[in-house]
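Lecture 7 notes: from sequence to structure.
We start with the chain below.
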Amino acid sequence: MQDFTDRTNHKYIVESKDSVNSIFDYFFDSELELGNVDRPITIFNGKRNFYIARVNVFKNAKGGKDFRHLKYPNVYKKRSKLKPVTI
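Predicted structure tokens for the same chain:
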């Protein structure tokens, strides 16, 4: 989460959807109802940028938690393979 009002970054590793909702409610004045997070989601309201994604969590060399982003398949089809339509 990036907070542009005081130029800070906050990073959270959470294990449940309720934790994400409580973090969102702390920083925003609206309600968020998350479904299954299949792809990364970004919410920006002009002051704060909220980014949520599923990640692989592991222990780093210092004994703390760290993460790697999951590899998502490309959702865009190449336009060269699509046939043009004439109207």
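Points to note: The chain has one helix and six strands. The mean pLDDT is 81.
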